Amino acid sequence: MEGAELDDAGAQCAEVTMPLDYNRPGGPTVKVALSRLKATGPGERRGVLFYNPGGPGVPAMYLALKFRQAEPTVGAHYDVIGMDPRFVGRSTPLDCQWPLPGPGAAGPDRAGFERSAALSRDLASNCARHREVLPHASTRNTARDMDTVRALLGERRLSYVGSSYGSYLGQVYLQMFPRRVDRAVLDSALDPDRFGPDLTNTQGPAMAAAMENWAVWAARRHDRYRLGATAADVLASVRGIGSTVNRGPLRVGGHQVDSRTLPQVLWSVSAGDDETTYGDFAAVVRVLADAARGLDVSPTPLLEAVLTGLNSPDVGGTAAAQTAILCADREASRDTETYYRAIQTRRGDEPVFGSLIYNLTPCSFWPAAPAEPPTRVRNDVPVLMVGADGDPAATYEGQLHAHRALAGSRLVMLRGAFHHTVCAGLFAPRNTCVDLAVNRYLIDGILPSRDTSCLNS
After folding, report:
1. Spans of all domains in the chain
2. What's the order of all strands across the beta sheet hosting 383-388?
């Protein structure tokens, strides 16, 4: 289906052979797959623009087409390049055959934490067969792959748009190849000094704020969802579900919701702040609240999809590839007690998500160490940053830290928005003010004269 759409759009697709280890150019290789959608005109062709939608672990070949369709004016001036990062999508995929996509939350007690640690250890051991390639799954090597593609295309410089993890990939490329960047847009920038297996540690306050914003919305619709007439009552309903699950799993249709999966289900509040997304999440919470009361319930379509995903094998290796990139970028602590202590310390302050965001990951048991230290991002290359101040994933503080690290950047902040990514309306509602700033920069080369704001609409 995706290949047919790329064909219909006239995309050129290719595989490029890259060194597995750039320090050994004559050694083992990997294949990196990419698509190119040529500039449509009219007007001057600016060059090539690489698009990365995030992840890590999200393929870009097809989503580059979605970006061009969302931003046809940009596509008129640039050849849009979608490159699946190494070990992702069609680029020598890495599949550890995980029985589950991850360990989930640690649960309410020591026994739950030990089960989580054992699952993380097992997932990591499943990747041991790939230990020779794991150190080279890093963002730094994906940046090198990008630069190799740039050179093969005969381009002196490249332009770039990256969202979420794509913002970090962009920051790493800017640091490694500052003179080969034309124009770069970083959407929902991640903190470059924190990116790695424990990045979720930074997300607690932002996730709580997103939940509170939804609770205000749900309280105004108490007659429909019956979760509470005030935001405090709605939040109490959510915590009540958690208390019940800590005593034993809930039956929801053909699924069980336990203390490992509940925080992951509730993480869906971060999916967006528009009416439809908030309504879908409220319906999920209503089902869970009814199940906690002992009622016979069926999952909503969203809940069915989430629970199926959380309890299904990692088909194709998406979660394993994402973890491999995180583990290759920054080493995680192998002292499991540090994670247990963090969870215990934050249980009172962060009762909904604390056991998830402070939990360990397979990186604590990873069979290979990073080949290089993390990239220290510090430069003054001109770049446009856009983001939302209520972003639950790319936190406001993290975006500001990235802004300070990129001394040549200008920041356009979407105020009062509690969703992740803001550019082109691909993963969140479109904002005309943000898109005007992005297009003005990419097409005309005009950065805002100072940091500025847009209002959520």
Report:
1. 2-93+139-197+376-455
2. 12-19, 29-37, 78-83, 47-52, 158-163, 181-187, 383-388, 409-415, 452-455
Check pLDDT > 90 for residue 42: no
- From CA 94, how far away is CA 97, in angstroms rounded? 9
Question: In this structure, what token pair is assigned to residue 42?
Answer: 């009219």
Q: What is the mean pLDDT of residues 165-185?
A: 98
* Spatial separation of the C-alpha atoms in residues 60 and 74, rounded to whole Å: 17
The residues pairing with 181 across neighbouring beta strands, listed in sequence order, are 158
Q: Which residues pair with 415 in a beta bridge?
A: 455
Give the contacts of 159 (CB within 8 A, at least 6 positions apart).
46, 47, 48, 49, 50, 78, 181, 182, 183, 184, 442
- With cut-offs at 50, 70 and 90, classify the pLDDT of residue 41: confident
Query: What is the mean predicted confidence (pLDDT) over 281-296?
Result: 98
* The pLDDT value given to residue 2: 86
CA–CA separation, 302 vs 324, rounded Å?
A: 28
At the topology level of CATH, where does 2-93+139-197+376-455 sit? Rossmann fold (3.40.50)
Asked if 161 contacts 423 with a C-beta cutoff of 8 angstroms, the reply is yes
CB 301, CB 40: distance < 8 Å: no
The Cα–Cα gap between 171 and 86 comes to 18
Report the Cα 146 to chain-centroid distance in Å. 20
Count CA within 13 A, CB hemisphere, residue 107: 18
CB neighbour list of residue 199: distance below 8 Å, 6 or more residues apart? 190, 191, 326
Q: What percent of the chain has pLDDT over 70?
A: 100
Which residues have CB under 8 Å from 326's CB, separation 6+? Answer: 56, 196, 197, 199, 361, 363
Q: What is the pTM of this model?
A: 0.96
**Closest to 49 (Cα-Cα) out of 141, 195, 153:** 153
Residue 1 confidence (pLDDT) above 80: no
| Torsion 396-439-383-41 (CA) sign | positive
**Phi and psi torsions of 305, nearest 5°:** -65, -45
The alpha carbon torsion through 25, 321, 91, 387 (nearest 10 deg) reads -100
**Other beta carbons less than 10 A from residue 362's beta carbon:** 28
CA gap 305, 279 in Å, rounded: 16
pLDDT value, residue 87: 97
Q: Rg of the chain over CA atoms, in angstroms? A: 22
